[in-house]
Amino acid sequence: MSKAAYTIPADGKVMACLDASAYTDSVVDHAAWASRRLDAELVCLHVLDRPPSRPARADYSGNIGIDTAAQLLEELTELDAQRARVAMRQGRILLEQARHRAVAAGALDPDSLQRHGPLAEALTELEADVRLFVIGRRGEAADFNKGHLGANLERVVRSVHRPLLVTSRKFRPVDRFAIAFDGSTTTRKCVEMVCMSPLLKGLDCHLIAAGSETTALREGLDWARARLEQAGFEPATVIEPGNAEHVISEQIDRLHIDLLIMGAYGHSRIRQLIVGSTTTALLRSCMIPVLLLR
């Protein structure tokens, strides 16, 4: 991956991606927490997606008359415009409520922004000035009963080139974090990014590896532990045989982990959990926030 993809501005903003889902309060709370830890400006973002195109209608003008058809078309156009205006007002109310909540959570003078278009497209256009994106695991249209992730989340994970904090349903203080590590270039970069950022300084640190304890994996963990110690952490390491998803989930519960850190892309088994054909298995099952790094 090009070096440019990892050039994250030290003075970049924390951007909270908001909608009317049940995750909105959690997104604001996590974003305010990150804003304080990074001493970064917080921006609350609401994106109005383009309205779906109206399905083609049969031409009844021969039956109802040209004038009547024109009047119906005019009424439908006005109805679409009214819906757009209502959606925009609802979005502004959402942003104002988010700003008040962020201030109460300790964020300093948070800003707000409303954009139009697909969410992933809007974030890629804005990311040059962003240090961290914060987004809910599911959007307002996701099926909670089936445990589906929001389609927007999958598109965003594949599109943005900034760290992405995927929140849990409710915020809780982050005291202990874990890095899912397999020795790959991607997970080594995760370690480097954790070391360089103030986001997690002073918190309890764990390295979790799934699979056989090979020489290469042990050497990788030794490197990661030494690098984290140089940065002031006191990492504990765990190697457990088994499927990565199951091992990581079990260790999260056993160690009382508050935040999981993973590489969003890479050529490894961990990659399959995020962007493979069976994508998002761990994101779907994990009950804590996940910080995805590229």
Structure described in brief:
The protein has helices spanning 24-38, 61-64, 66-104, 119-126, 151-159, 185-196, 215-230, 244-255, 269-275, 281-285, and strands at residues 13-18, 42-48, 111-116, 130-136, 164-167, 176-180, 204-210, 236-240, 259-263, 290-293. The chain is of the alpha/beta class and 294 residues long.
Overview features:
43% helix; disordered N terminus; single chain; 2 domains; alpha/beta; 10 helices; Rossmann fold; 294 residues
Descriptive overview:
The chain has 2 domains: 11-52 and 86-167, Rossmann fold, CATH 3.40.50; 176-293, Rossmann fold, CATH 3.40.50.620. 43% of the residues lie in helices and 19% in strands. The chain is built from 10 helices and 10 strands. It has helices at residues 24-38, 61-64, 66-104, 119-126, 151-159, 185-196, 215-230, 244-255, 269-275, 281-285; strands at 13-18, 42-48, 111-116, 130-136, 164-167, 176-180, 204-210, 236-240, 259-263, 290-293. It has a 10-stranded mixed sheet with strand order 3-2-1-4-5-10-9-6-7-8, sandwiched between helices. Helix 5 links the parallel strand 4 and strand 5. It is elongated. Residues 1-6, 52-58, 143-147 and 266-279 have low confidence and may be disordered.
